[in-house]
Amino acid sequence: MNYMARRPKDIGHALREARKQQGLTQTQLASLSGVRQETISRVENGIAGTKLVTFFALLGALDLEATIRDRTRGSAAEFEDMF
């Protein structure tokens, strides 16, 4: 799995897709991560304000990691082609 995230909504989408690929419900992920199901729903819906500790707890439970890199450059058309 490889997603580009520039907004909270992008991060939420990536986490939702990872959860679904692993066949987990939000409730099961809550149990694995120690994060409340309601919070997982907010994160997956891109609602801003998630604490970094929550984000990393979800990454750990889903066996994912974050990579920070320089922002890609290119035309709007090239960016749209990524999705």
Please characterize this protein's 3D structure.
With 83 residues, the protein is mainly α. The chain contains five helices and no strands. Helix 2 (26-33) packs across helix 4 (52-61).
The outline comes out as globular
Low-confidence stretches: none
Through-space gap between termini? 13 Å
How much of the sequence is in beta strands? Answer: under 5%
Counting helices, strands and paired strands, the structural category is mainly alpha
What is the rounded Rg?
A: 13 Å
Counted beta strands = 0
Q: Could you tell me the mean pLDDT?
A: 90
Give a quick account of the main beta sheet: strands, pairing sense, barrel closure. Answer: none
- The string of secondary-structure elements, in order, is HHHHH
**Helical element count?**
5
Q: Portion of residues in helices?
A: 55-70%
Write a short abstract of this structure:
The protein has 83 residues and is mainly α. It has helices at 8-21, 26-33, 37-44, 52-61, 76-81. It is globular, with a radius of gyration of 13 Å.
Topology:
Blueprint: H1 8-21, H2 26-33, H3 37-44, H4 52-61, H5 76-81
Helix pairs in contact: 2-4
Label this structure with key terms.
83 residues, mainly alpha, 55% helix, globular
